[in-house]
Amino acid sequence: MGAGGRMTLRAASVSLGTPLGLRARGKELLLRGQPYRQLGVNFFNAVYRDLRSTGRDTSYLAGLDDLLRLPTLKKSELVTDQAEHPPYGTNLTQPAGEYTRLHQTSGTTTGQPLRWLDTPRSWAALMDCWRQIYRLMPLGVDDRCCFPFSFGPFLGFWAGFEAAVQEGRFAVAAGGMSSEARLKLIADNRITLVGCTPTYALRLVEVAAAQNVDLKSLGVQKILVAGEPGGSVAAIRDRIATAWGADVIDHWGMTEVGPLGVAAAGSRGQLTILETECIAEILHLDSDAAVTPGEIGELVITTLCRIDSPVFRFRTGDLVRAAVDADLARHRDCTRHCF
């Protein structure tokens, strides 16, 4: 998942400006988002503080133009909302008893993690995101997956692991193991896809060298990296690819928005954003105005299908530029029904 909490420059551009059919689909999803209205005035008063005097609630979101009139949302405001309305804050559309999963960030500037709840419905939306990601990579029918990830309360590869299992793939959750044990696990189980951070992929290179293990002989074909921008940095991506003899695939997401981006086949240096699942904007750092196409700005996300813990115009802290010449025709099948 993405860094959040700090400004991160991703070297890769992102595919936005999806075909008109997908933009129309995004508008339709927003207009049909009745559960948003259950947020009511509490969330808007708690987080969008400058709207208090207007008396507006989420019924104000009559369309995309209305959404774009909202101020952007910062992570610090979500942290404050949870501190003032503990333990989960107010951006919840369902009664407390409907939520079945809790994940949280590793920490914030206050020292407190940001907690995030999901219902079975919103978790299913994350599974659908991962199915799209796996199609775009693509995940092969015979791929065998290993996720050497700490798991714990972090969203990270929890969703990716579960989606791989739901897709009928062999998957191993390799938490709580030494690097040496993980390498043996990868070898013994003929793993073809490893999911981890770029830093840990390079750490396994060091451990393999110390153990006289030839990584290229293990048969790993894909390294799916996330949690850091290294997967979009050519020099880091090439180091990992050379050492493992594998294709390195970058994935982007955050606890607050879910898994929403991947370096699709044929465009490994570029992230494709799942605009069937969100409304993505690239804005100036010091204003809510959009940047000129091709200019670096901050990625801002409104979630469309994770509707039981949504965010509106959330500033991710990731700096990106739009790939204005991206060929998006091959991604037109990334659509689904959310409601």
Description:
- It is built from ten helices and 14 strands.
- It has helices at residues 20-31, 34-37, 40-46, 64-67, 75-84, 120-136, 158-166, 179-188, 198-210, 234-244; strands spanning 8-9, 13-15, 101-104, 115-118, 144-147, 170-173, 193-196, 222-225, 247-254, 258-262, 270-273, 278-283, 297-303, 314-320.
- The chain has one domain (8-331): 3-Layer(aba) Sandwich (Rossmann fold).
- The protein is 29% helix and 19% strand.
- Mean pLDDT is 82; it is low at 1-9 and 327-339.
- Rounded to the nearest angstrom, the distance between the terminal CA atoms is 25 Å
Overall SS class: alpha/beta
Name of the CATH class: Alpha Beta
Strand line-up of the largest beta sheet? 2-11-10-9-8-7-5-6
CATH architecture: 3-Layer(aba) Sandwich
Query: Quick one: overall form?
Result: globular
Low-confidence stretches: 1-9, 327-339
Helix content class: 25-40%
Q: Mean pLDDT, as a whole number?
A: 82
CATH fold annotation: Rossmann fold
- Biggest sheet record: 8 strands, mixed
In short:
It is built from 10 helices and 14 strands.
Task: Record the SSE blueprint.
Elements (H helix, E strand, L loop, with lengths): L7 E2 L3 E3 L4 H12 L2 H4 L2 H7 L17 H4 L7 H10 L16 E4 L10 E4 L1 H17 L7 E4 L10 H9 L3 E4 L5 H10 L4 E4 L1 H13 L11 E4 L8 H11 L2 E8 L3 E5 L7 E4 L4 E6 L13 E7 L10 E7 L19
Parallel strand pairs: 1-14, 2-11, 5-6, 5-7, 7-8, 8-9
Antiparallel strand pairs: 3-4, 9-10, 10-11, 12-13, 13-14
Helix pairs in contact: 6-7, 9-10
